[in-house]
Amino acid sequence: MVKTGRISSKSKLLAGALMAIAPIAAQADTPLKSPIKASDMIEYTTPGQTDADHLYLEEVLGDKAIAEVKAWNDRSLKRLTGDPRFAVLEGHALEILNSKDKIPYVSYRNGETHNFWQDAQSVRGIWRKSTLKSYLSADTEWETVLDIDALATAEGKNWVYKGNDCLSPEYEHCMVSLSDGGKDAAIQREFNARTKAWVEGGFVTNESKGGSTWLDKDTQLVGVDFGPGTMTASGYPMTARIWKRGQALGSAVEFIRGEPSDVGLWPGTLERGDGSREIIITRAVTFYDNETFWVPRKDGVLQKPVKFPVPAKSSMGKEFKGQMLLTLNEDWRTFKTGDLVSFAMDDFMADGEIAMVNLVFRPDARSSINGYGQTKSKILMSISRDVTSAAYEFDWDGKAWNSKPLDFPANGSVSIGATNDKEDIAFINSESFLSPSTLWTYDTGAGVSTKAKGLPNWFDASAMIAEQFFATSTDGTQVPYFVVRSKSTKLDGTNPTLLYGYGGFEVSMNPSYSATRGKLWLEQGGVYVLANIRGGGEYGPKWHQAGLKTERQKIYDDFISVAEKLIADKITAPIHLGIEGGSNGGLLVGVMFTQRPDLFNAVVCAVPLLDMLRFDQLLAGASWVGEYGSPADPVEGAFLRKISPYHNIKANGKYPEVFFLTSTKDDRVHPAHARKMARRMQDQGHEFLYYENIDGGHSAAANLKETAKRLALQHVYLLQKLKDGK
After folding, report:
1. What CA–CA distance (Å, rounded) separates 164 from 168?
2. Residue 185 DSSP one-character state
3. Does residue 698 carry a catalytic annotation?
4. According to the model, what pLDDT value does residue 724 have?
């Protein structure tokens, strides 16, 4: 996990990203937010194909909808699991996912390392801990804190662990988040990490998106569903409340409220150097426009919130040696979009103003901040240059910021893992496409790094090569992409090639080691390509903002330019070229096969957005208007109609066979997107495969066994289409 140094508010699950990828938990038979209007319906010449004809597929657990899903599942599973390669690939995936050799990524708390672990014996997983000394040894001795499998069995629930929030500095009082089946919506329950028991009469929330955070051991700040008028149109909390120990949740006292049109309101805390906590509220007006407030207290009584005078397009961090960190997504004063700056919290608290702003780091046109974390004595930052990254150490001397590079493996990705602002021990991860992930400890006090854990070589990378190239998009922009292949690959246009992209929400696609990708695709003779198209964060906020709303075709043109260059360079040919994307990436590949079906022979379209005229009416969709635009706006709506895959599939079109993957329990991206697209393709006589997992949330899998099955299904499909030429 990468901590970016933002103020504690564990509920800010805004992105239909990362991915705004993982799927959403569906609400059973949820009524439609608004009926479709006659003016919204798209008429087709083929009978039975108006948009209104498919609305029943938005009923998540509707009998008719589920019957169609099961029929599609059965047909697809019969073909894919019947392929003799399925059992082999599923076995490889299970071996990797359940391996004891996986890196147990940890957080560091008061001398202890804490980890969440899943394998064949712990399907739902265990929260466990160790000493740092034992963790760094070859044979770590783990102590179980909470067994999710045992809990699920005892309570008859399909619990999926969503993390814990423990009160520092003792880390004894914890709120554990549990999701039924993998939904974003979860409950929080108070757990004592010392006694390893649920707290009798302790804090417990109802199932909801949002959550809570500690103000002190007897007080929570909570933002959840309190009934009508307390949630935004996007399905996130609209109010923040003070919740005292022993008080019924419904009696928690509201102290600030947003608007129904907001994305959400997120209560958090800022822990200062003396251990005191200040209340900080983030009001997400849109996905990218925020208002941040400090709520003063006088004699224990909350005062009127004071708004931080910072840009709407900025992200507040924590306090480091008196300096509040702020990432800018727009120009401000003399500072530029993409800058990381700081200001004195004490000065702001004195009069509500910010007099002096200091520059921490300014990326150039070819670089961006990948993320940062904070220890007791330093700020650690991952800085990307042309998509490969390195780690740096920053410090504040009371007058200015200084920095120095850290010595970690180059030419791949170096990411800042778990950090704790009360400790000097941090974790840094390094990896590349062909170099297994290595986890390092870094002592920011002593300036010493130590290799902690490393993955084994799950596939023979010695025979492979990873190269970076650039494609020229329609407006002349140079778009980077990576090609991972065998060194013996012949450039004759016959290579089965998988092109992956995302292109949204400022999410960067960095070089990464994937054991399953290597074993299930590269070792099968496949070529893997990662396209760093606009919409992501590879070159900072401007790279993302270049493809917002009605400018989004630039993102798709970037992806097309990469595909065309792969073909021109004879790495592959259309009959051997497949594409994959999930969530926002599912929209990307949906647009690709409707706009340029001639370029591709396989499409893995996972937990996708596809109906862009109703995306804002389904689950969390309203929160993404800042990314995609509003269907109700005349100009933006017309553009969305132009790109919407669901509205641009044609009866007389010739399309590659598409494989749709989604989850019934996805409460972020509604499964109706995939369902309705599949139904329209069926109506028009087009070929497709479809698999909808009943559990799993936005990741489309609630456990490792389901993940292995999904991976095997999609790789058998890719081999059939791109290697066998079906």
Report:
1. 12
2. -
3. yes
4. 94
Q: What are the extents of the domains in the chain?
A: 46-94+464-723, 102-303
pLDDT over threshold 70, residue 4? no
Q: Please tell me the total number of residues recorded for the chain in this structure.
A: 726
Of 583, 623, 644, 663, which is the active-site residue?
Answer: 583
- Inter-residue contact 383 to 370 (CB < 8 Å): yes
Matching fold, domains 46-94+464-723 and 102-303: no
Query: Is 54 in the active site?
Result: no
Is 60 exceeded by the pLDDT of residue 35? no
The DSSP line for 432-443 is -SSS--EEEEEE
What DSSP element (H or E) covers 672? helix 672-684
Please identify which of the residues 54, 670, 698, 715 carries the catalytic annotation: 698
Output the CA torsion sign for 261, 267, 272, 277. Answer: positive
Phi/psi for 284 (5° steps) reads -85, 100
With CA atoms as reference, report the closest residue to 511 among 654, 620, 415: 415
Each residue of 401-415: pLDDT tens digit? 999 999 999 889 999
pLDDT-based confidence at residue 29 (cuts at 50, 70, 90)? very low
Q: Are strands 438-443 and 425-431 parallel, antiparallel or unpaired?
A: antiparallel
Q: What are the angstrom distances between the C-alpha of 317 and each of 124, 271, 282, 397?
A: 32, 11, 12, 19
The pLDDT confidence band at residue 702, using thresholds 50, 70 and 90, is low
Secondary structure of residue 191 in the 3-state scheme: strand
Pairing of strands 602-606, 211-216: unpaired
* Among 540, 560, 569, 549, CA closest to 472: 560
Distance CA 560, CA 503 (A): 12
Question: What 3-state DSSP class applies to 709?
Answer: helix
How far apart are the C-alpha atoms of 165 and 174, rounded to whole Å? 5
Say whether pLDDT at 681 is over 60.
yes
Please state, in angstroms and rounded to a whole number, the distance separating the CA atoms of residues 639 and 621.
Answer: 17
Interatomic CA distance for residues 508 and 502, integer angstroms = 8
pLDDT tens column, 176-220: 999 998 888 999 999 999 999 999 999 999 999 999 999 999 999
| Superfamily of segment(s) 46-94+464-723 | Alpha/Beta hydrolase fold, catalytic domain (3.40.50.1820)
By the 8 A CB rule, do 468 and 485 touch? no
CB 472 within 8 A of CB 421: no
Contact criterion met (CB below 8 Å) for 694 and 472 = no
Higher pLDDT, 38 or 102: 102
Q: Is a pLDDT exceeding 60 seen at residue 11?
A: no
CATH code at 102-303:
2.130.10.120
Copy the structure tokens of residue 330: 């727009």
Smallest CA-to-CA distance from 16 within 588, 495, 604 is with 588
Average pLDDT, the chain: 92
Q: Please give the helix or strand (H or E) that residue 97 lies within, else none.
A: helix 84-97
